[in-house]
Amino acid sequence: MALIITDECINCDVCEPECPNDAISQGEEIYLIDSRKCTECVGHYDVPQCVEVCPVDCIIPNPDVVESKSQLRAKYEALISKK
């Protein structure tokens, strides 16, 4: 699954630079994750880096975007082929 940032986000800006897919951006009130780019760091790291650095634990799986590890891997491969 892609991840989402909940409204507990404190806009600390630590997650955005950690995302290897540039899926995180500043929204109007909180940071947002683009589910089309989020691979939960599959292909880059063993664990999602944004989750690792978030001081308030406000990054959770997006229940609206359910994906298997193989689907996340395919998304990662499609993203890197565009670079």
From TrEMBL:
Q: Which GO terms describe its molecular function?
A: 4 iron, 4 sulfur cluster binding; metal ion binding
**Gene3D superfamilies noted in UniProt:** 3.30.70.20
Top-level taxonomic group: Bacteria
Name of this protein? 4Fe-4S binding domain-containing protein
Record's keyword terms, sorted: 4Fe-4S, Electron transport, Iron, Iron-sulfur, Metal-binding, Transport
InterPro entries, from UniProt? 4Fe4S_Fe-S-bd, 4Fe4S_Fe_S_CS, PSI_iron-sulfur_center, YfhL-like
Q: Which organism is it from?
A: Nitrosomonas marina
Domain named 4Fe-4S ferredoxin-type: residues: 1-29, 31-64
Taken from the record, one Pfam family name reads Fer4
Which GO terms of the cellular component aspect does the record hold?
cytoplasm
**So which cofactors does this thing need?**
[4Fe-4S] cluster
